[in-house]
Every structure is written in C-alpha cells, then in structure tokens.
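Input/output pair, single chain:
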Amino acid sequence: MKLRTLLMGAIASTAFAPAAMAERGSDGNVSIIYWQAPSILNPFLSGGTKDVESSSIIIEPLARYNETGELVPWLVDQVPTVDNGGVSADLTTITWKITPGLLWSDGTPFTSADVKFTYEYCTHPEGGCAQLTKFEGVESVETPDDLTVVVKFSQPTPNPYGPFVGGESPIIQAAQFADCMGARAPECTQQNFNPIGTGPFKVVEFKPNDVITLEANPNYRDPAKPAFATVTFKGGGDATAAARAVMETGEFDYAWNLQLAPDVIAQMASGGKGTPIAGFGPLMERIELNNTNPDPALGPDERSVIRPHPFLGDPAVYKAMSMAIDRPLLVEIGYGQAGRVTCNYVPAPEAFNSDTFKCDVQDIEGAKAMLEAAGYKDTNGDGVRETPDGKPMSILYQTSTNAVRQDFQALIKQWWEEIGIQTELRNINASVFFGGDPGSPDTFQKFYADVEMYANTFNGTDPQSYLGNLLCDKAPRPATQWQGENIPRFCSEEYDALYAELTRTAGLEARAAIARRLNDIAIEGGAMIPLVHRGRLSAHANSLGGVVLNVWDSELWNVADWYRKDG
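Output:
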C-alpha cells in the first residue's frame, strides 16, 4: 500500500467493530515497543512523548481527545460547556462532575480531592512541572463535594480545557503523592515509577529505560476490559528494530513512532505480519535555537541560563541558517508522503497554520550574502566566518539517535558549513535525551548545545497551551528542576502580551488569527527553525484488534479496547 493512500485513509482504515464481550484478561499478553524508552511514569516531570504515552495507560485525565480531535468525557459524565451549564456564562469557571463509583487501582475511591491535589502538585512554587501551561490562568480549584470539581480562572477563559484534559494533564492520587510536593517531586522514585491509576493497567515492575511490566487493573470501571491480562512495554533500541519486531518477526504487537524512510516501511509491511498506520496531526520536526549561552566554561547552573547567545540572537544568522536548508529534500529522504515542508511552529489544524513565511526553496547564495552584509566574514580564509567581535561561528548541533535524524544532521551540517558556520554533530540516546532527569546533562530540556533537533506536538485541536510553552517564565532552569517546555529560552514581551489576549478571546476565527500571529512572532524572533510537518506513523500486528490511531492525544488512548483477533 502506498503511504499516500495510507495517510489519506488512516482514520477510516482503523475504525473497528467492538469485540464480543469477553471477560477481563482473557486474551493473555500484549507487547508494545517504544524505541524511545520511558524513563519515568509521571508526565508532570517529563515533557517527553514516550513518558506521557506510557503513563497514559495507567493514569488518566477527566476528558481527552478522540481520533477526530473531538473532546470526549473520560472520568466524568459529560464534557462541561456553556450550553449544558458546566461552563459559566461569563467563562470564568468550569465545573466537572466525576462519574460515581470510580476507583483507583488500589481499590480506594477516586474523588475531587485527587483532582485538586494534582493542580496543587503541578503549580507548587518550588516545583518544576513540565505541564505547567495547562494551568495557565487558573485562580483556584474547589471541591464542593467528592464528585464535583470547580476550576476558577482569573479572567474569562473561552478555552477552559487545559487543566485535567488530554494525556499531558492526567490525575495523580493525592494519598500516594502527598509527600512529593515542590522540590521533593523528582525524589519520589517509588511514586514516579509506580503510580496508582484509574487506567486499564497497573504497574507490576518498571525498569527505567528498559521495560515496564503491567497487569490488568482489577478495579477498572468496565468489568469486561481490558481484554489483555498483561502488558509488556519494551523500550529502547531503534525505529528499524521496532518496526521489524511488529511487521517482520511478529515479536511485538504495537510499535510507535516509526521514524523511517518510506521505502523501508513499505518493504517491512510486505512481510504480512503487521500493518503501518498513519495520520497527520500537529507533529513538527524543528531545530531549536538556544537563546542563552551554553558555553561549557560556565557552571552547570549557568549554562543555558545566561543571556545572550554569542550570535544566534541575530536575525541575520538564524534566517541565513534557515535559508541554507533544502526542506523538500529532507522530506523526500526522511518521510516521503508522511512529511510536508513547514515554516511554522503550529502547522495544524489548518486554521492555525500561518502563510507568512516561505521556506520551500533553498538559497545558499542568499544566506551567504545575508551573513556577509551583517558583518560575519571569514577573515582568515579557513572557511569559518567570525562574528563582528572576532569569535568563530562554531556551533554544537545535537539530537536524539535515530537514522533519519542523523541523515538530517549530516545534510544540514554540510549546508551550514557551505555558508561558513562550523558545525559539530552530537547524537544522544533518545531515552536519555527525552528523559527529563534533572541530574542528567544530556536532556533536551537542559539544552547544553547551540541548536538541537526534535519533534513535538500537542493534545487536542486548539494550540493555546502549546503556544503558552514559549512564555518567558516557562523556560527550564535550575529553579524548576530543569522542567518547562520553553526549550529555546525564547522571551518576548510582545509574545507574552498577545498570548494573554488569546486566553480571553472567543471564536475560532479570532483565536486562529491571534495564534497565527504568535506563530509568526516566534519564528521571526528566532525561537526555532521549522523543518517538517510530520505524519504520525506506527504499526500494529495483524492479530491485534481495536487499534485506533489518535494524532490528537496519546496513541495508547484506547488500549482498554484492544483485543486479540481470532485466527
């Protein structure tokens, strides 16, 4: 099957008829492989997708997004709206009604106190919460009774679905995490590795950066689910091995994020044991530009904190670097029909996709001329330009270890060196790079490099919280345990003020116009260099039923519905 056809029909092809009612655990074991290994099962302490998704089968939000991007109730009876009275007419409160009778996996009641605690945990002033933007504008969370949660905002909030919605904002148990507030959060190994949840599975054993063993939650709210008794969640390796394990050898049932060349996927799919599934959401491969100084001569708590960067803050530099890149070639060699050229931070949904920038034509000579005019010259003839104050233009370019990313690195290094910017390449094991360990110097949050490349996305179809990641105060730093999603340390008063306007603006057209302008400020201001709008591509065994690819939430969002097909 051609990948274009696969992408166009992704949602339709993954629709399924529910399996006949069976008893919980009747289908044995299901094996999942994420070649970026989970390092923690607490998404509040890691912005890595691998950690968010692995924890999503254990801990859950009040509501989440389905495969079409529609908000659906999860631990509540309905999604609150103005029409049903759940959102106040003045848009300052949202009231959630928890479904009665829900239990944690340890058999204790799930109540509004757990929801309020989750808010207090993430917003603790001495903590470092990777998902803090989900609670932007929240004034208080109140619990008038065990099944009612009232979230109050400091101003009218047309999009009140940041807190407790989607795989990035689940509920954690108050009793389990009570002693893990603030600076103590990353020290709570037992809690972070073995969270008690409401999801279909519970942790038996977690080996960080290796394997998670899980079993069916005996207190899951649907007595017939999950169909599988156990889950083996393997992490590590590479995308090629993961894809082969599902589509060629049949060793695993589901493989995530198959970042491989299109011809490789097609060849593996011909093996007949597994099926690739794909769809376009807002996932975007980018090069982040460090707005601070990562000089190793600075102390560990100063690197990537002290401003400014010696030269990356100059628009002439980052625009020239962008002009030197041949994005159509990157798409062709890396993703084929599963990729599209993008110049934007927010490439989807379409209403939010800005048309301000053009970046689909490489211009090496134009990039050279731009640098020359700005005073960046090669004065000694060694092929490396110097800054106007005499510093060589030399950068460290890091990313995670992955065949496609290393291909990208090699090409971009060549192009940048053609325009006189010396480029050193570094790749880091993906499980470490995206791990969020505050003690590691190699995480993408620490950003001990000049530029780094990776992809990111967001839950749902409204990018408000995602855009909030670039607020000045969301930069990772020692005081936040190096958590925060403003990875490039971008800071713009204009951006922050316009974001505040977005949070109080209603109507899709008006919100989209502000979001597009925020996108433009970020790109124009040097937060990042967008490269490829990527399709999500995974694979499942032909014997695995119930899989519905979801590009708007966790890919494992409906793992409770998975089952083993007969035959």
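The first strand starts at residue 29 and ends at 34. The chain is about 25% helix and 20% strand.
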